[in-house]
Amino acid sequence: MLRQLSNVLPLAVLAAVALTVLAHADDAQKHVWIPPVDVTQALKITMETKATEALLKKADEQCFDTDCHKQLEECRKALATCVIVPSKASVHEQEMENN
Asked: 66-84, pLDDT tens digit by residue?
């Protein structure tokens, strides 16, 4: 029994390491856009959301400064991997409104 365990244990550790590396590699390829609070709230983004052209079009209507438009275009260029993440301030403000 102990011999079987000693044979399986290294394989289990290797599998765990491989899964961890793959998970981090997937996150590393994401393009993350954290829009301003007003844009986040207008889009009703409460958690990480996959960017779509329709969502970016709505965001474009809500962006009022050049930095927001610049970040939006970067997200559009990386549309396949772009995710929209609400800022901590936006999440906090939504929590305050809900309480």
From this structure: 999 999 999 999 999 999 9
